[in-house]
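Standup notes, protein team

Yesterday: finished cleaning the Gluconobacter thailandicus set.
Today: Type 1 glutamine amidotransferase structure.
Blockers: none.

Input for Type 1 glutamine amidotransferase:
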Amino acid sequence: MKVHFVIHEAFEAPGAYESWAQARNHKLSYSRLYDGDVLPPSGEDIDLLIVLGGPQSPATSREECPHFDAAAEQALIRACVASGKAVLGVCLGSQLIGEALGARYKHSPEKEIGSFPITLTEAGRAHPFFADFGVSLVVGHWHNDMPGLTPDARIIASSEGCPRQIVQFGDLVYGFQCHMEFTPDVVDLLIAASPAEFVVPHRFVQQPAVLRSNSYVEMNNALFGFLDSLSTAYYKKETRIT
């Protein structure tokens, strides 16, 4: 499987997504936008597009952040969706998927940073891709916003602070507002890059010492199960087409 990562900032690393792809011997490619890389011209050479998070929002302009082109990323997302590729967005990436499909992103009711439980909806509990999640699962968070909902979108999971934690936009298209890719190394990068996030106490913001003490193994394993299911579904669809 050819997996392409769109990475907005060095401190928003692919973490467990990259570990999964490497362990399955998938072919990895990257657009490290912060380092001057460009986006692929199309989705032709991609099986799974993973668009990661960042401090930007879909409304961030080129003037505000020269290496971030929301319109270009949305065009790539639409191209991949139209050609039947698997697409997964994380945090900002999930909001860009919604925008690409015509749904405006929104501010989340609560800011969330840390490890807090998400609860699967009825649709989520019935979805075979999320069999490893149980009814509730503690996962990572680092956000202020959430994705918009298209008419056909289904909310798979929510949290006390955010009603749109996981959204299914299509059979092979998913948005994860939560950060199930967190590992200790990824969390350290985010803490170092965002000291201002911890100045004002908030009920859904854990301090760095707590963030560093959290275990991310269970959620990583649940993510791997989801990704295995997604890739299997993609291969089955490709087999039917060919």
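Follow-up from PR in the comments: Helices lie at 16-23, 70-82, 92-100, 122-126, 184-193, 208-213, 217-241.
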